[in-house]
Every structure is written in C-alpha cells, then in structure tokens.
Amino acid sequence: MAGYIVLGIGFGILAKVNGLSVLWVFLMSLFIYAGSMQFVGISLITGGASLITTAITTLLVNARHLFYSISMVDKYRGSGLKKPYLIFGLTDETYSLVCNDDAEEGFDKHKFYFLITILNQSYWVMGSLIGAILGGIITFNTAGIDFAMTALFVTVFVEQWKSTKEHRPALIGLGATGLCLIIFGSENFLIPSMALIAILLTILRPALTKKEAENE
Prior knowledge:
mainly alpha
C-alpha cells in the first residue's frame, strides 16, 4: 500500500502539472493500470503521439508481462469469473506477492490472489487521485518524480533477493539484461532481454526447481 500510494501520488502530480484533469488521471489508473506506461503515457498524450506510436510503445514498455503471465497459468487455472480481472491486474508488485504465495493454509488461493490484485489497484487509484488533487494545489519543480517507478523496481528486486536462497534466476535476469543492453542499446534492449531471460529460465527450469525444493 505504501509503495503504490507514493508512486500513484507521483503519477497524479506529474499528470496534473502536464495539463491532465483529475478525471483523466482516475480513468487512466482505473482502465489502463500500468504504472510505468502511465508515466510514459503522459508524454505521449501531451506530445500528440499517434495511435500506432502509442500502441508500439505500450507493447515495448509492458512486454515483460507476457513472461509474467506464463508463470501464472497454473496458479490462475480454475479461478472462474475472477480470472479476467486477475489477468488485467497482473502488475509487477502483484506478481511478486502472488509468487510468494503466502495464503494461510485452507484459505481459497484464488480468492487470495483476487484480494491482492484488487487491493493493489485500489491503492494505485487512491494515490493517483491524491496526487492529481495536490498537483492542482501545490506548484513546485516536478523534475525526478518519474524516477519513482525505477526505484520501486529496484525495491521489488531486493525484496525478492532477500526472500529466497536461490539467486540464480535473479542473476540470469541481470546478466541477460546487461548483455542485451550492450548489444542492442538502451532504446531496443527490452524485448530481446525478456526473450533471452524466458529462454534461459525455461532451459534451466528443472535444475532451478530441484534446487528450490532442496532449499525448502
């Protein structure tokens, strides 16, 4: 909650100072619900980007969710009417929490996943609205606010690292990303790095699963 509200406030302020109304901020957080893409979306909207440019940019920024969803196939199977919303609401933070799977024994896991998802979005919407309102009242230099999303990704990574003894997946992610950054450059490395990570983790999955079982 703390992370989502703080980041949402940052988005709301940035959107408001760039001319978007409180209503638009609310609708973006309700129906788009993609933190990093919403930050990018502000510049796309205010810069008059075409629909094609917006679509391609959205695909590139959110491509990591293609790979998140693969690992959620088994977890979300049998979730019934909750499934469409679980798919829509699969963000980085929700993915992290669902992967930890801390539901109490005997508790309906699909209900647990649903509650995590809807609570996370409610925090994001709440923070966005607070930020939009503050952005209309307070005037100050907003330079650097968009870095809040990067800071969150680093925090999620650190928490995942501390919560498990198996660090090879994280090291694979760092190594593959660094290699693709060198080869493809900062503008084009996202898709290749996600593809490389998915391939490597798929190949190494039996060994990683075995090691994780041994650690438990």
